[in-house]
Specification:
The structure is a homodimer of 490-residue chains.
Chain A (H helix, E strand, L loop, with lengths): L10 H20 L15 H7 L11 H14 L8 E2 L8 H13 L10 H18 L5 E5 L2 H16 L3 H4 L6 E6 L4 H9 L7 E4 L9 H13 L3 E8 L11 H11 L2 E5 L24 E4 L12 E5 L4 H6 L32 H35 L5 E3 L8 E6 L13 H19 L3 E7 L2 E8 L7 H15 L3
Parallel strand pairs in A: 1-11, 3-4, 3-5, 5-6, 6-7
Antiparallel strand pairs in A: 2-8, 7-8, 9-10, 10-12, 11-12
The structure holds pyridoxal-5'-phosphate (2 copies).
One pyridoxal-5'-phosphate sits at the interface of chains A and B.
């Protein structure tokens, strides 16, 4: 008898189990389950869902049949983030090449720290990181796949700090007065980085943005000067290429000039916008990006790789090694028989590290860089079509930015009751309540998922964000019609 | 015609592609490919491998057939970390339940930050974290799945720092003199944490260990007093439950008493040893663990969950929220229609976050907690059998610890030439060179993978580490025989 506790698959025992679940998965989560005709989600509140999904962790093993039932139930009640009508976040889609690359990775279950344990993944990582650097415009440098863009931003700030003052690695921040700059519209991970790295939020200076949401270089220079006057230590600027909400691109060139002038590290958070570099037509949005010292780029966002696929890149060849090495001899033995430059793990902050490269690699060979370009261009086209459609329906819809630069389409839905009331005192307050109400109905019906948020003094507005190149202008019409249907009576 | 660039699977186009690859994967990486009769790896040095694996990122798409060939090649040349004779790292195995849970997760591709996007995964996480806390002995608290135990240790140090002085979140470390304590045998991530968090390595005090590799509480107290005398600010101790190399368990109770006396946060790094808590027979190794303020526990190590499955747990209910919250309104809107306590993301340092819960959950229901216990007990039994076998072969093998506490079995192999030379001056120097040579032969033959390392003044020794409950005492004999075969003539 095969014992069920054993941590090794057994063909005799598990083959049918695997095959049956894989069959159902292909149906329920890869093909039919994310067809436009299927629901995006089947909403249940936490109490209801707790009853529908068995939340018991039993003492005795369940049968294979029970385990299978449980997993299919998980599929049934989970949000289908691969559904074309899931446009709620900066990730979506279920790329076929990405998915199979991910599944192959899982069955090999590697950890990328030494060549001996992950030879293929090590080579793929090095090559892909090199290619991404060359797309940025760097001939040399280094990089690492990270568990998310937030983490990649932490690397950026940490490398900048090391460059500014290498002795901080040993001495710590006691007695230092480091100051970091980013825009008010930057991603919140920059702020979290200042907690984590011991810099402190009050030493994060938030720079003004223009109407499109782009960092104002004049304000930046003024604030840098101010902090120098106060005897503080400015050390880095985090610019954003593709802000989270508005999709704005900070003007990298003037910012880079300021960074050169004051000898500050320039980190460009292109977590969201980095994918635009794949397109000859749209890469101008990041012009000057090669001037950056380091970059965050999440292929799991615009390029629609599976979660997570996030990259930190720098043009400084030895900074990751210098700033992060701890030379643990139990793992990075120097008396190995092969050249230990291939053991990359000592350079990184993680020890065990999942291989996030194969999914992107598989997408790249399955589509070619031209296919990735076409993917990106398609997203811009659908965004443009959406903007045009919104403009053609001025009674109900109002754009937040009349000409968005990127694939974020932000707009207010104005139900009949509020039309023509723009000048009334409580207009904004009323408008602010519309999106959450529509969102509630949308989620409960499960027909699509679109997010909303306020920004600065702007009341709640919807944000469509495109990463799924399956989308067409018909989907754009669907999104607007559906919002109209759900919100008309509000 | 279906365009190949689209980020959406198409049944017509991709079904055969998926099925063929999955078939080959089951064969090559899940069943036959990790049978004892198959090689653990097919060694190629980086140059050779670069030719065998196509490292080209093409402009034009490859055919589905070519993509398939590439992926199967990746499988062929990758190390089979699920093979029973891969005992090189603190992770191994390919748990059947873990694997299928992971694959289901991938097809759903969630990010666990809001309930609306990941309802099922949110509930599963909450429940499993609660269960793990209750196994530790805590009635309340909080926790998070992390991208690795290193990251979990960073959370521990970060929470400790916040507790010590909440204003550091805003003010930063300027003007502070924080000091952290851990043992000389602690995992290197503690040191990396001091770089990252801005504390500085010189403010990490390394405490002496006894012969078994356990932290010496007397030395700890002395060093704490010393730093108080120097007007520094001791704030936390990181104890280890299961050290990386020797598998030692720091004595938590006396350490906890010292922490209480000096009001220090106690973080227990049980990344490796945490799994022993599942066993009634072996959980005494962590006695006193409920006294800790926080814990790192990697189910992907001893419990053999797929990479990565790492948990940070704390008994303090609001500390994650207090120390990490940035209240981003674009994601964590407070005007949602459901109770936003279910939107857990604001508490964490990451934004997008992979779901690492389902693989462990599936293992738990497939085996029951009793099965997990049997898994752990089996590993201890095989380790004990290995120790006994080593003792029975005293001419060739010498244990580093005569009675190891855990499933790390560390030993020297002594080839004929060195036998009886213990007193010669260059004995250690010669012995130091043996393990790397055997390792080279082992890797080139591909029959197994066992790691070696030096420790302190001890010359290189082998370390067998067990996480695969498929292993039996016959495998232990195989490991020793094989080392003997490979090293006899050295
Ligand atoms: C501009 C920007 N930077 C960084 C991030 C963080 O990326 P991740 O969610 O992978 O941590 C995001 C996430 O949306 C983002 O929009
Ligand atoms: C004791 C200990 N703590 C922490 C870690 C780090 O865990 P991870 O590799 O998941 O970052 C390890 C890794 O081996 C370890 O042995």
């Amino acid at each position: 008898m095969i014992k069920m506790f054993k941590s090794q698959p057994n063909k005799h025992k598990h083959e049918t189990f695997f095959r049956e679940i894989l069959d159902q998965l292909l149906l329920g989560a890869v093909f039919d389950g994310i067809d436009r005709s299927a629901p995006v989600l089947r909403w249940k509140n936490p109490d209801e869902l707790s009853k529908l999904i068995s939340l018991e962790l039993p003492k005795k093993p369940q049968t294979l049949e029970e385990v299978k039932e449980f997993l299919l139930n998980v599929v049934h009640y989970s949000v289908k983030t691969g559904h074309p009508h899931f446009v709620n976040q900066l990730f979506s889609s279920l790329d076929p090449f990405g998915l199979i690359g991910q599944i192959v990775t899982d069955t090999l279950n590697p950890s990328v720290y030494t060549y001996e344990v992950a030879p293929v993944f090590t080579l793929l990582e090095m090559e892909l990181l090199k290619e991404m650097r060359s797309i940025i415009g760097w001939e040399k440098g280094d990089g690492v796949f990270c568990p998310g863009g937030s983490f990649a931003n932490f690397y950026g700030i940490s490398c900048a700090r090391y460059r500014f003052s290498p002795d901080i690695k040993e001495e710590g921040l006691s007695g230092r007065k480091l100051v970091l700059f980013t825009s008010v519209d930057a991603h919140y991970s920059v702020k979290k980085g200042t907690f984590l790295l011991g810099i402190g939020t009050k030493n994060l200076v938030l720079i003004r943005t223009d109407k499109q949401g782009r960092m104002d270089p004049t304000d930046l220079e003024m604030r840098i000067k101010e902090s120098i006057d106060k005897d503080l230590e400015p050390f880095a600027v985090v610019a954003t290429a593709g802000t989270t909400v508005l999709g704005a691109f900070d003007p990298i060139l003037p910012i880079a000039n300021i960074c050169s002038k004051y000898r500050l590290w320039l980190h460009v958070d292109a977590a969201w916008g980095g994918g635009a570099l794949m397109s000859q037509k749209h890469r101008w949005l990041l012009r000057g990006v090669a001037r950056a010292d380091s970059i965050t780029w999440n292929p799991h966002k615009l390029l629609a790789a599976p979660q997570q696929c996030s990259v930190f890149l720098t043009k400084h060849e030895s900074i990751l090694q210098d700033s992060n090495s701890a030379s643990a001899t139990y793992l990075f033995q120097k008396d190995k028989f092969y050249d230990t430059k291939w053991d990359v793990g000592d350079k990184y902050l993680q020890c065990g590290r999942r291989a996030d490269v194969l999914k992107l690699w598989t997408m790249w060979i399955g589509k070619g860089s031209e296919g990735l370009e076409e993917h990106v261009n398609t997203l811009f086209d659908v965004a443009k079509a959406t903007v045009d459609e919104i403009k053609s329906r001025p009674e109900n819809f109002k754009l937040v930015l009349t000409t968005p630069e990127f694939v974020n389409v932000c707009f207010w839905y104005i139900p009949k009751r509020l039309q023509g009331q723009e000048n009334s005192l409580d207009y904004n307050e009323n408008l602010h309540k519309i999106a959450p109400k529509i969102k509630e109905r949308m989620i409960k019906e499960g027909t699509m998922m679109v997010t909303y948020q306020p920004l600065g003094t702007r009341p709640n507005f919807f944000r469509l964000v495109y990463q799924n190149s399956e989308l067409t202008c018909h989907d754009a019409t669907f999104f607007l019609d559906e919002i109209d249907r759900l919100g008309r009576d509000l």
